[in-house]
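Notes from hallway chat w/ T.B., transcribed later so I don't forget. T.B. wanted the structure written out for a chain they're using in a teaching module, and asked if we could keep both sequence and structure tokens in one place. Agreed to drop them here.
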Amino acid sequence: MRSRAKLLIALLFIFTARAAFAHEANPPPSFHELIRDWEFDPVVVVGLFLSAWLYLRGTRRLWKIVGVNAGIKRWEAACFWLGWFFTAVALVSPLHAWGEALFSAHMVQHEILMLLAAPLLVISRPLATYLHALPARWRRTVGRWSKIGIIATPFSAWFIHAAALWIWHYPPLFQATLTSDWIHAAQHASFFLSALVFWWALFYGRGRHSYGSGVLYIFTTGIHTGILGALLTLSSRVWYPAYQNTTAAWGLTPLEDQQLGGVVMWVPASLVYLAAGLVLFAAWIKNSGSTQGEKVYAG
């Protein structure tokens, strides 16, 4: 018990010490300085290592009990580690500091979190693996709470994710992320968590019965994010003046940087949503066919 109390105190200390890792007042002006500017935020680093350790421990236990590729498939494990890698790239690599110098780099960071890391982690279904990493007496308690954890319907998940996207791109609020480490953390947390809930609700919220509505929610998400990207791209004025003194070192005007960021949100993101929508549509058609077959057989 004492060791656990010490661990909790240490984690609390790490969390409160996060303020010491505030954003730099002047973002790196050159690539050579940027490449050395890794973001070792203690909360992020501890979270990444803890999630990796739990998943590795849970995977080994599951495969020891039920055999390799049974409790968790190899491709699911690969999805987890790829999603974990993209999360680390977005939050720890120099891309994080680059996002303080260029709006377009900031957009790349957000898209990696929401469109690469989040769906890959959801597809890997890590919760059951995490449970097997815990002691048996903890597993039952956490398992009961996990059944309550995600209550979002596909519509509510869609709405929450859409609200997070549009609210955080409101210029005064977005610019505040460049001067406050806590606001920036809140932005990343809301983007990442809302994306996790969004993808979970579409893939697993109501099982196969959610595939049809999931197609609609994915395509409408692609449409409204595309509209936001188009507004950023086609605008003739700078939305975020905080970047006016940081883009010249990269050969861009603030407006060009904003337009490039808008294109990132508009085109590549739309392609990801299109691909995911087609995958869900194919699963929906396949499931509908099997359901009809079962009804005919039963009749």
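Follow-up for T.B.: Confidence is low (pLDDT under 50) at residues 1-26, 291-299. Might be a good example for the class.
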